[in-house]
Amino acid sequence: MKRLMFFWLLMLWLTGLTIPLTAQSEYRVENQKGYFKLPFQLINDLVIVPVTVNGVELSFLLDTGVNATLIFAIDGEIPDVKNTSRIFLRGLGAGEPVMALKAINNKVTLGDAVSEAETLYIVEEELIGLSNRLGIELNGILGYDFFRDFIVNFNYRRKFIKVYAPEIYNYKKCRRCVDIPLIFDENKPYLEAKVEMEDQEHNMLFLLDSGSGDAVWIFTDEERGITVPHPSFEDFLGYSISGSVYGKRSRISSLSLGDLKLKEVTASFPDSLYVKDVSLYDNRNGSIGSQIMKRFHYTLDYPGKNLRLKPNLDFRKSFEYDMSGVVVQHTGQRIVRHYEAPPPFFDVEEIQSDGEEVSEITYQLKFSLAPQYQIAEIRPGSPVEKAGLQIGDIILEINGKPAHKYSLDKISSLFTSRDGRLIKLIVERELKEMKFTFMLKRIL
Length: 444
Known about the structure:
The chain is mainly beta. It has two domains: 1-318, Acid Proteases (Cathepsin D, subunit A, domain 1), CATH 2.40.70; 326-439, Pdz3 Domain, CATH 2.30.42. 6% of the residues lie in helices and 48% in strands. It has helices at residues 130-134, 144-147, 290-293, 383-387, 408-415; strands at 28-29, 35-39, 41-43, 46-53, 56-62, 69-73, 84-89, 98-110, 113-124, 140-142, 151-155, 160-164, 178-181, 183-185, 188-197, 200-208, 216-218, 233-240, 243-257, 260-270, 286-288, 296-301, 306-311, 326-340, 349-353, 356-360, 364-378, 394-398, 401-402, 422-429, 432-439. The two termini are 13 Å apart. The relative contact order is 0.16.
């Protein structure tokens, strides 16, 4: 697989987040057909959809790993919600529980799906930092409250979902499809899969977590012989609402979902410190994330407790870790200058010079705001560290192209593109421009 997000997106930041369950209003499809199609943005393999809350248009992450609807207070600004009260939440990570606001009786709309009295949980966006790490303003996360009322088809290749009212949906015959039963606990979906590693097979139970940017997370269990395969390396795994999560990264020989087998899958093994205080389903062995799910056209059927998988063209692509060893984040905007040429049809000023006519073309110097990208983490021993780059460096150019002309998604693709690829960076450090060169290196 040539495309993989940065390490900060290979995370389980909200998978361990369990919110007290409350009665919710139902979503319904407000059209005569009973279904609708909705395009989405695919950013670092995460599905971002437009959502309207109380008439305000926002952007939300669709995430099967959360059991409620979260909305972010950005820069201390509380969104326009109704009837709030305080609660405390805990996720993965070693930090303390964080305060949130619970808001009831809010109108939420996604495409033609509407809920008139939705309960929302408001947390500070900077606690999670998704906007900086995705390069877009993300306003919230939509999970179980939406999925429970519909059957949803995901098409990652063409970037759309189809949402159906359960009473009108009929499964079609499909020879290449596999149906996987879903098991629910605290409104989160779990599924069984077979894992092969270190020449042993294990039947495991995984949380289905479309909001995790990793392929698979596995919790070690020495009594069952579930340990970290060799070779492996220590790494920062991601962010939780309760703090940073650390552990090891390795590969498993295969992951089988029914008759569908994925080989040489990248796998993360969080340290037990970060999961011991979190309420997890007793038999759960880990989580399956978007690096797995993007390889299928899949039908998510909460009402029928079923997941139907059909391999797409990405199914056999290799799994890869980032080959640079750098974590890049969006840190606001910077002023950039550029020269603007005149339009193709314009009057040229004629100037006499020593008896000859000279045509003068005037270019305008313009200034504009553009995204700023900064190095947030560096993996010890990585190509980036060996080249001399440092945390805090602001990236100005990548391979001769201004950095602001890239999205974070494109930078991620470049840094995971090919073993041995030459990367040239110009960065700003303490107001000085510096040049660096390194080669991408496959880590496992």
